[in-house]
Amino acid sequence: MSVRQAAIEILNKVFATQAKAGEALEIASASFDDRDRRLLHELVYGVLRRFYSLEADFSRFCKIKPDPVAHIALLIATYQIRHMRVPAHAAVSETVTAVYKLSPKAVGFVNAVLRRVAERAPPKKLKPHQRAELPKWIYASWRDAFGADVVHQFCQTLKSPPKLALALFVDRNSWIEEAHAMGVEAIPGALSPCAVLLDSGTDVTALPGFEAGQFTVMDQAAQAAVWALEPTKSDGLILDLCAAPGGKTALLSHRFPKARILAVEFNARRIPRLSENLSRLRCGNVTILQADGLDLPLEKSSADAIMLDAPCSASGILRRHPDAKFLHDSQEVEKLAELQQALLGEALRVLKVDGEMVYAVCSIHAQENECVVDSAPGLKSRQRLLPSEDHDGFFFARIGK
Ligand SMILES: C[S@@+](CC[C@H](N)C(=O)[O-])C[C@H]1O[C@@H](n2cnc3c(N)ncnc32)[C@H](O)[C@@H]1O
């Protein structure tokens, strides 16, 4: 199978069956060498990031509605013509060959449309949601919440891959010095005392301390949510609800080495990875519990502190996971908000009086943010970080009892 064919199939799975792009890519990548794997990755993520402007571009030349394969092929080829250093004739012919294998009757149509795309400049005017590369409903909701200028500004940052961010469990200055000595550019992150930022393509396995579990990959906005937790007792019981794959558990474990940490995860299929990560990151004070965060097998008022990193629509991490904008609609966001509210209620049941918890989500929709926490009587503070060049969008709130 060619790279373009694989890209069409992966994107089709994302659009038609709401598959996660990362998982589909991991499966498909196994049959390609490094160079083709990088190309496949770039085609899939490039199209997901710039879907709306690409669609507006080629649609000018479509007299009929393309079938799903033709639609995705047009996205892929238009992406190559506009954003990659692939000669237009090669982008067209390679894509047309892939269409021939997957939907032969669409070949003539795709070929004709792509030739027009290659001859013409991109459209001068795009609708606001197309400029922001967002579905209409997300654009409208964020425009109303944050203002059009702010949305357009942060959406610019969503069009390219993010920096690599690490949470370090060793002295940050010494680690950065070691990285510099190896010729690796690394700078401290401003949002977390243990964050460092590196170029997006950096190979983590070649960095100092990888084998020794001295760091984990985690955006610095997510780290800030963990640093927001201020337990009254640093050697008590800390619950990490919704723990897999364990990034925040690991940071909690290293921040509070004397605490007993219980990492709760509902999805049994995610437990092996959680367990593997925690042992690689030397988190000796953590016990894993497979349980439903909505019905915890724990006494009322038994935990000193709780981190609740709730499942969400991932609207804050579109730069990292641009498929998230195709996976949830506004009704699903409402359903997620109900789940988040219920998880918060159960967390507050098991939290000790005078204990403290952090509610966090990597989404910036108000429904999943202030609408969830504002009715909590012990709300102490809340913060929404909008996505930027240096970090993801994130929301976290400190809540006492
Ligand atoms: C946002 S992810 C957590 C990321 C994790 N805290 C980290 O930093 O690596 C949400 C997790 O919640 C889990 N989850 C979903 N519903 C749950 C429930 N009812 N009880 C416990 N965990 C749940 C999901 O399986 C998923 O692993």
Summarize the structure.
The protein is an alpha/beta fold.
Give a written overview of the molecule.
By secondary structure, this protein is α/β, with parallel strands linked by helices. The chain has four domains: 3-126, NusB-like (N-utilizing Substance Protein B Homolog, Chain A, Orthogonal Bundle); 128-159, no CATH class; 167-217, Sun protein, domain 3 (Alpha-Beta Plaits, 2-Layer Sandwich), CATH 3.30.70; 227-400, Vaccinia Virus protein VP39 (Rossmann fold, 3-Layer(aba) Sandwich), CATH 3.40.50. 46% of the residues lie in helices and 16% in strands. It has 17 helices and eleven strands. The chain has helices at residues 3-17, 21-29, 34-49, 51-59, 68-83, 88-102, 107-119, 128-131, 136-146, 148-157, 172-181, 220-227, 247-255, 271-280, 324-327, 330-350, 370-373; strands spanning 164-168, 186-188, 195-198, 215-217, 237-241, 260-265, 286-290, 303-309, 351-361, 379-385, 394-400. Strands 7-6-5-8-9-11-10 form a seven-stranded mixed sheet. The termini are far apart. The model has no long low-confidence stretch (mean pLDDT 96). The structure holds S-adenosylmethionine. The site of S-adenosylmethionine has 18 residues, from helix 13 and strand 6. InterPro entries: Aspartic_peptidase_AS, MeTrfase_RsmB-F_NOP2_cat, MeTrfase_RsmB-F_NOP2_dom, NusB-like_sf, NusB_RsmB_TIM44, RCMT, SAM-dependent_MTases_sf. Keywords: Methyltransferase, RNA-binding, S-adenosyl-L-methionine, Transferase. Belongs to the class I-like SAM-binding methyltransferase superfamily. RsmB/NOP family. S-adenosyl-L-methionine binds at residues 242-248, 265, 292, 309.
